[in-house]
Structure of Nucleic acid binding OB-fold tRNA/helicase-type:
Amino acid sequence: MLFESRPASRKSPPIDLSERSAIKGLWSFTYEDADLFKRLGRTDSLRKCLDNVTHPDFRFGVLSGESGCGKTSFLQAGLWPGLESRGFRCLYVKLTERDPLAVIRQGLPQQTEIPQAPVNELDFPAILEATAGGEPASSDNKGVVLVLDQFEQFFVHQRYKADRQPFLEALAAWYRQSGHPVRLLISIRKDYVGYLYELQEAMGYSLGPNESFYLEKFEPREAASVLRVMAETEALGFDEGFAQELTAQELASPRDGLVSPVDLQILTWMIKAQKGAERKAFDRSTYQKLGGIEHLLERFLQQVLQARETEARRQAAVKVLLVLVDLESSTRAGVLTLSDLQCKLSGLLRAEEAKEAVHWLSRGDIRLVTARHQEKESGYELAHERLIPALRRLAGKTLSEADKANQLLDRRVNEWMGNQRAARYLLRWRELRLIQKQHPYLVWGTKRAQKEALIAKSRQRRNGGLAAVGMAAVIAVSLTTMYYSDRGQIWLMERDLRFLAQKTRDPALLKKSALAFFARNHVQKALEVVERIRCPQDKARALQALAEAAGQLEQSEQAVAWLKAAGEAATGIKDSGDKARALQALAEAALKLERSEQAVAWLKAAGEVATGIEDSGDKARTLQALAEAAAKAESWRLAREIADMIPSVDGRIQTFSQILMIWAEKEALPAAKKKAAS
């Protein structure tokens, strides 16, 4: 998710079309385009929305509309500056795949003077209270409107109700506070409006006519007026009669007779982008040269991609675009970083090829991909969802047979393995023929053995005939018999746990699942479950728990291997305090496994990391714990060195005292054993 605010200045990208151009292609109009946007046919809709949102009784509302109707432009270039002109403050948030509540916390300090640390401790109503500044409404400060755009992304990427519940409860808590100074407006795609029943149920609200806004596409006459303005601002010729005819007969949808703003933008972009010395204009001659309106977006994609120098580069661009699409739900896949994209495209494109394609697609004169600035690394998303149907059609024509075979094999091997290698997930005859035909060009990757096994099994089924049918019958009888046995029930529960573990990202649940699989001696499956944990700190804890479990079962080699893997995961922890404590915990686990050298190495690394902790109290506590752990490992020199790093005199006194007591206990233990033996 992105938290956007009006920038003080912006560096212009190297493009032919300026920031104030009326031709945006697939990009949205922004706050800086407010004066231009006023001329583009949304005056009545904007006035109605502003009147209702700024009404004293307004608290919550929904803006909906079809994909491509211009909701984001309406909010950024229309509603946002309109609210400010009426004395309201607007906070604009665009949802993607990330948790909305966490990123609102992260983004608030960027638009206010509130420090980050206190915000992290606030719940959603308190965050909004802080946003309002605790000041009563006045003529100069009439309140705050929080705008959540692309709200459908919340439902697309938080697929399970349990994942959505925390944010829904936060919204409900805010709504129950009557007289709250912050108002909320969400924008959602028309085909996702039905999902709002969960929000309605949680908040206990029922929208009235003044709280529900539907942004229509343009009437043909409105569309013609918009084309006139775009032509004027870009110094293009304009034939009024032809524009009226074009919008009514060609651009208007046969379903509802309305014109999509995206279609207007693409048509204008293609006219503007024509090469040659001939006059560029909205007239019949120019239109005929473009080939008419049929499959406009697909031709737009083809024309843009044609600029790529080679077929390989065109295919690289298409592959990047496909990764940015959730084909299952026909929505954008969210904001993906360059490293995310390179990972998803591994085996299909080299890292350098993926990077070059991403940067080309996000260029100002291309605009098929939009760059989004995030906290740590910039991300990228598809410029507009209206591209998806055209991209689907184009991908079928552009991807080579080898690409299709590789994508098919990757998908089918995952399905086969994810369903216990069931026979019904083997390759069908046509799929097997395509894969065998492209065998020299297959990308095997890390699953070569599994892919070869799938192909071999599929070939056996094709050649087996009646033998395969008989084998299936035997398997069916065996499974039926096993189903009613105790072992069968345990096997079924293991199968269900494998399936369910693929659907959660909760580190605690994944850790518990991994321990269960290890207890059942499914070592590889336990490791696969741990690999689903994204947070390095949580992954290190899970691997440490597996190592301790292996140690209890006297599987020392497995325990050490997992402990080393946990150490590698811990190196990815960013926070100095968390990293130091994680290394300390691993060192203590290594001592239990009698791996003192590894324990000392981790403690030394933890001591170096702990020096970077900013909070003096936390730093002192962490160093004291590390010094004591080093003493228990009988690394007395390291214990003293770490203790010397403690900034306070009191802390060093306490730590040296504790180290000496540990020494005394260790000295007294042999004497006690000797006395007991005598």
Observations:
- The radius of gyration is 31 Å.
- The first helix runs from residue 34 to 37.
- Residues 300-399 form a domain with the Arc Repressor Mutant, subunit A fold (CATH 1.10.10.10).
